[in-house]
Amino acid sequence: MTANQLIRPITTEEKEHLFIGGCDTVELAEKYGTPLYVIDEQTIRAVCRDYKRAFSKYENVRFMFASKALCTLATSQIIASEGFGFDVVSAGEIYTVYKAKTDMSKVLFNGNNKSQEELDLALKLGVGRISVDNFTELSMLDNADILLRITPGIECHTHEYIQTGHLDSKFGFDMSGIDEAVEIILKKNLRLHGLHAHIGSQIFETKVYSDEVEIVVDELVRLNKKFGLNLNEINLGGGLGVKYTEDDCPPSIDEIADVILSKLYKVIEKHKINPPLLILEPGRSIVSPAGATLYKIGASKQVPNGTKYVAVDGGMADNPRPSMYNSKYSAVIANKPFDLDSLQKVTIAGRFCESGDILIKNIELPNPQKNDILCVFNTGAYNFSMASNYNRVQKPAMVLVNNSQSDMIVKRETLDDLISHDRIVI
Ligand SMILES: *Cc1c(COP(=O)(O)O)cnc(C)c1O
To answer: Where are the domains of the chain?
Structure first.
């Protein structure tokens, strides 16, 4: 069992109240207000260590956390302290990991439409690798250490919007364009080190990773032979799934490691090559289970012979995933986690002006009442990072919990923050 297979942070305790990181979540809600993102430091570290342990028999491995899942100074520092580098996709993410004092040589800049300003910033701040995605970008770059992002043509069974490795994808060079890309690279001052692929997100199958290893290594070897190169880095991206509800059964990190490494040893043997540097870029699996969101329950409404709606003080602006991907979540009432006698089936509605702003459909909760605190689990990834100010609502604060201590790592926005970039012109 690895921490990506848990719905809740590893430090979760159900006493009279729900505790995370040794902190009473009801007190956290009182002290910092709601909605509140809670991040459990121990869970982030546990998953990082799961990855390191599971892949430890392969010496030449490097982990780069996909910052787009969660990018703050404090969480970046924690992840960096576990020895991880970062996969970044924008000037904002580059700047954040830089300000978190991470080793920039362990950072890879990825993305399908990087601007010249972003590329220049990456090179100026010493980003170790640029993953070149397309011909336009090749023409914009010079004097850089690069990987080539390729589209390996692997279909994985996840939401269409989070598939990335299939043939008709907006990301990467398709296999037929790679030779032409290498020819251009060889004419420029660009140091190509290897290949980069990423096949999707919230993946539960293991075989897709084994296919990916073979396609990427075969291609690396073919390029080395054809062009007399010495490419020795394969970056397989991220994508390992997490357990949002009891219906989700993601593989453990050990299972993924077994599948990837056993295939890698086979293709190394097949081609009689030195073991390449293996790079992995987990995002969701590192931070999702570490996060929970606390909301305060407000209005409720019983539709005659229909749904009972219970509204909370957040919703699609702090967690757009249910309305975007129809994602499911698990939750408990933090001030009465044990009260199982009075279970009712309810639908948790957000407070934003969209009928689609429903956080959880048909969940059993113990008689939810106004001012109860609802704790939604597995919100550490793609919640804060996808949050918006829709309806001109302030983004929530984030607190880090560990050893019964809580620290605010992102301040709640104020009303003045909301208008601070506005300019009056009449
Ligand atoms: C999004 C992304 C990741 C991380 O994916 P997760 O599903 O969050 O693990 C890794 N690499 C690349 C290139 C990505 O775009």
So the answer is: 3-39+288-419, 41-285
CATH number of the domain located at residue range(s) 3-39+288-419 in this protein: 2.40.37.10
Tokens of 30: 């009182």
**209 CA to centre of ligand 1 in angstroms:** 14
Q: Is the pLDDT of residue 316 over 60?
A: yes
List the residue whose alpha carbon is closest to atom 15 of ligand 1.
198
Strand pairing of 373-377 and 23-24? unpaired
Distance 237 CA to ligand 1 centre (A): 6
**Each residue of 242-285: pLDDT tens digit?**
999 999 999 999 999 999 999 999 999 999 999 999 999 999 99
Beta carbons of 61 and 55 less than 8 angstroms apart: yes
Cα 279 to averaged position of ligand 1 atoms, centre (Å): 12
Classified by CATH at the fold level, domain 41-285 comes out as TIM Barrel (3.20.20)
Which is the closest atom of ligand 1 to the Cα of 203?
7
Tell me: pLDDT of 294 over 60: yes
Residues known to be catalytic: 353
Angle CA 94–100–101, to nearest 5: 95
Phi, psi of 235 (to 5 degrees): -110, 115
Give mean pLDDT, residues 106-132: 97
Within 13 Å of residue 185, how many CA atoms lie on the same side as its CB?
26
- Give how far Cα 413 sits from Cα of 33, 287, 391, 420, Å: 12, 22, 14, 11
Give the global pTM: 0.96
Facing residues of 141 across strands? none
- Asked if residue 93 has its Cβ within 6 Å of ligand 1, the reply is no
pLDDT band at 341 (very low <50, low <70, confident <90, very high): confident
What pLDDT does residue 338 have? 81
The single residue listed with the structure tokens 């302030």 is 394
Percent of the chain with pLDDT over 70: 97
Rounded to whole angstroms, the Cα distance separating 271 from 289 reads 39
Cis peptide before 250 (omega within 30 of 0): no
